[in-house]
Specification:
- It is a single chain.
- The protein is α+β, with helices and mostly antiparallel strands and 474 residues long.
- The protein has 3 domains: 68 residues, Nucleic acid-binding proteins (OB fold (Dihydrolipoamide Acetyltransferase, E2P), Beta Barrel), CATH 2.40.50; 137 residues, OB fold (Dihydrolipoamide Acetyltransferase, E2P) (Beta Barrel), CATH 2.40.50; 169 residues, Rossmann fold.
- Helix content is 22%, strand content 29%.
- It contains 8 helices and 23 strands.
- The strands form 5 sheets. It has a 7-stranded mixed beta sheet, covered by helices on one side. A 7-stranded mixed beta sheet has the order 19-18-17-20-21-23-22, with helices on both faces.
- Helix 1 runs parallel beside helix 8.
Length: 474
Amino acid sequence: MAQFFKEKANKSKQLSSKLSLNVTQLDHLGAGMAQHQGKVVFIAQALPGERVTAQFTDQKKSFAKAKLIKIEQKSPQRIDASCPHYGHCGGCDLQHLALDAQQTHKQQSLNELMVKLSGSDSIEPQVQVAPLVSAPWHYRRRARLATFFNNNDKSLKLGFRALSSNQIVPIEQCPVLAEPLSALIHPFAVLLSRLKAKASLGHLELTQADNGTFAVLRVTKVLPAADVRVLVSFALTHDIHLLLQDGNGELTDVSTVVPSKSEPALQVKPELQVKPAAITLPEYSLSQGQINCQFTPGNFVQVNAEVNQRMVEQAVNWLDLQVGERVLDLFCGVGNFSLALANRGKILAGLEVIGVEGVPEMVQQARDNAKRNNLGNLSFYHADLSADLSNEKWLGKIDKLLLDPARAGAFESLQWLQKMKPKKVVYVSCNPASLARDSSVLLNQGYKLTQLCMIDMFPQTHHIEAMALFEIGS
């Protein structure tokens, strides 16, 4: 007899009955934690001290996830979210928690991760320094908005991704963006919806730089000349630098290409592109205005300008540069730390700063920045920092080391510590779990954690950044 496969229901995904749970703490991702029949239950948007009604959405052997249905007993630290898109947009997931409580939670989470993953017994109180914080709103100088074209009704949405989804939440303003950027969202949504080629539009990146407001619009196909004229008019009206980016990542400033009415279309092709030198690039200052750092749209820069200024200054101070030292900055990007280190070293005879980055375009931009700032004691190299570095000419004895890796951390790079032998290591991290794991490498080679700083780069969110100082023989 033939037997036919019948898929079994996924019990782990089945919704449970509604439960009343007591929330005891937050996990490092900002979810409330409760206990139920020996399982840890994670409940997004629930706070410690609250009793809530929740419903399981995912059950595993040792833990479960649940959605918040109702708050039966409210925490005194709970506040009303300020953003009308809260709960729908995928960002700013801690708006319901008072700012001081957010920062306390992030500090505790950082300490717990460092103890758990680094192998340390505890974080000594004298090691912890005051957190680096900023204004809680309008702190983001950069954001990327997604577009979605609906083939059925030919409408275009502009906004951010929904929570745990690829769906686009249309927004008109964003209270964590710099005010000039937030004010542009609605006008841009109206503008893009008017374009004939709106089905050929990709993301929109907005940047507030020291030298103006920049917008980069991704285009995938030919733009009608009429659309280009509309874009040019918009850029002039709103006093912004509006760039088009094609499928190869090449940029064209719309102000340099104004088609006549007789031209049917403009295609963003190499023959129509302006050379990069002719495009105004966004820039920001460092070291109390002594350093000017340019970057190409799309390249990584820290989004919180206020925190970045303090973070760079603290890193320079922690490294305590001396005459004749050799300083290495790994994962240097366009020179965010390297430029400030070299600038401080201008008055220190023989001090040499070396920056290494894995993205060739950013290495070239860093070199251009060194040249623009007349920093002859600074050089940049390209290298895959997760690969074998033994043949790299810059690798060797150094005095001070700075690391600013991506979320994956710097575990592979730290395998070369014995060859570098730095006296001090400053590790800047956007993922405390990676920092804690990598700390074990440093501790096992005789370094001691002497400073630990929580960085609140993203207020209103669960994201935690950190800076740690390790010293040998201290």
